[in-house]
Amino acid sequence: MPQGNVSPYGSWASPVTSDLIVSDNVKLVELAIDGEEIYWVEMRPTEAGRYVLVRCSFNGNCADVTPESFNVRTRVHEYGGGAFVAGDGAVCFSNFSDQRLYRQSSDGTPTPITPETDTRYADGVFDRQHDRLICVREDHTVPDAEAVNCLVSKRLDGIDGGEVIVSGRDFYASPRLSPDGTKLAWVEWDHPNMPWDGTELCVADRAADGSLGETIRIAGGLTESVLQPEWSPDGVLYFLSDRSGWWNLYRWVDQRAESLCSKDAEFGYPMWVFGMSSYGFQSTDSLICTYAENGIQYLASLDTRTLELKPLTTPFCSFRNLQVGSDFAVFVAGSLTRPTVVARIDLNTNDIDVLRHSSSVDIEEGYLSVPQAMTFPTEHGLTSHGYYYAPKNGDFEAPENELPPLLVKSHGGPTSATSSDFNLTIQYWTSRGFAVMDVNYGGSTGYGRAYRDRLRGEWGVVDVDDCVNSALYLARQRLADENRLAIDGGSAGGYTTLNALTFRDVFHAGASLYGISDLTVFVGDTHKFESRYLDSLIGPYPQCRDLYAQRSAINFVDQLSCPVIFFQGDEDKIVPPNQAELMVEALRNKGLPVAYLLFAGEQHGFRQSQNIKRALDAELYFYSRVFGFETADEIEPVEII
Description:
Layout: E1 5-6, H1 18-23, E2 27-34, E3 37-44, E4 50-56, E5 62-64, E6 84-87, E7 90-94, E8 101-105, E9 111-112, E10 119-127, E11 132-139, E12 148-155, E13 163-166, E14 171-177, E15 183-189, E16 200-206, E17 212-220, E18 226-231, E19 237-241, E20 248-253, E21 256-259, E22 279-283, E23 286-293, E24 296-303, E25 309-312, E26 318-324, E27 328-334, E28 341-346, E29 352-357, E30 372-377, E31 383-389, E32 396-397, E33 406-410, H2 424-430, E34 435-440, H3 449-452, H4 462-476, E35 485-490, H5 492-503, E36 509-513, H6 519-524, H7 533-537, H8 545-550, E37 564-569, H9 578-590, E38 594-599, H10 609-627
Parallel strand pairs: 1-32, 33-34, 33-35, 35-36, 36-37, 37-38
Antiparallel strand pairs: 2-3, 3-4, 4-5, 6-7, 7-8, 8-9, 10-11, 11-12, 12-13, 14-15, 15-16, 16-17, 18-19, 19-20, 20-21, 22-23, 23-24, 24-25, 26-27, 27-28, 28-29, 30-31, 31-34
Helix pairs in contact: 4-5
């Protein structure tokens, strides 16, 4: 590799191009095991963001299950998840275009089993004794009314909407049948709670005809988040609860919740989507689980008799969608320097097979920036967390005494987290000479409930302070140029970005991807799942109307004095386009440099390869004009007004 080409930061030529990122890249989500066969869903940007169900035999032969005209994705809660269930050689899945459920045998074609009505389905489990499917249903058939959620039992041999078996609460998730079919467990909660605020775990006996007896609430409440109920092979109910301040494992025995592994670690994740899984049973006596401790994630086995927890050695730094068989487990795994994979581990030998790569990209080490977990000081004597990536490109070095521009990344959610997973988009920036700070601001998950609760009533303040303080910390360490600090983020991260640019005088440019600029518009113009989310993040509306106005950047554009670029999908139901357009118009009226790219056919988050590419290159082009460097790539110019 050539050495010593001197060129300003930001102008370095890189093999990590936007074409490379989108041309050979899929997103791996949702896993299931049916005997020795493994299923997963992959989102393919090259197929206009279609979600495809794939089946892999134990010998590693993989093939698409769903035909090209089908898109395996549900819109329950808009974020979806739990879009398919597999069992006995057949699958049931939700198709995105019509939101109907389809059944498909291993050698057959998809057949609809729900009617053409405005209803959606997710998070199903087969009821083999009655040839039915039990799942969450979200009913949108009443115009101008809030959707109605319930649990239904759906026949697999006919087109009907399902028999309602549990109803009356605002939300339901995780219906799970005991191995003998005599009990059903599920999770439920009401507005204004989100599932990481407080949920209840319920159990009911089932009669021979499948009807449910009295509902018993065994765990959870307004301030206890209970997630992921699962039955062990011998019929004991396990679950996750954060009653200790951390999502730890429990089981229900002798009419009480027994702690299995008391640890300052997170064994679960916030339930943004259905079907999330962080543990499963190898046998009655052995449970396989994942947990995060001090920002690092582990795969482990737990002896359910002795309660001994043993980490398993793997080359991975993150684990998602864990599914467990009798002698193997599969998961979506991330590592520091290689793209995400679907991996299978032999639980007897610890041997690992990679079944699917999200990308075949293999970047030379000289172009790779390895994340460094970093803790930095923030407001009120506290510390916050993030991952720092130094500029890295073996072909170039910067002029003497030049410091790199910094891009601070604010993750979405906001009740979510970033990870140290290999991320080609971050490498796109670092290999061109940018430093990157990926911030897990207060409110992020993975650090316990107290850290998560820092954002309660403080959204738009704590997250902004932490992003600002991360940039100032790196500038003080001379790891970034204090005069070339930028911030970007999508969705809730876009809100943090806009507030950081408006209410703090630290950043010199920013990019908002489908971000929120006016909280009051968001209150009245979003979907059911998040319609009361801001009650905890800001305060109840309209009682706290003034606070909503104070935290909305659109009301303070006079304080914004740096360039911003906006990216938006025209079909976004979570953050509608008018959010970006209100801000763009205000900036234009003020005469500040601003750019706006609206992508047709995109929802919340970009799934089409040409739009992912365009957004990435356009952001680089925008910064090059603001920070005064020439890009090595030829990029279609962006109109900056």
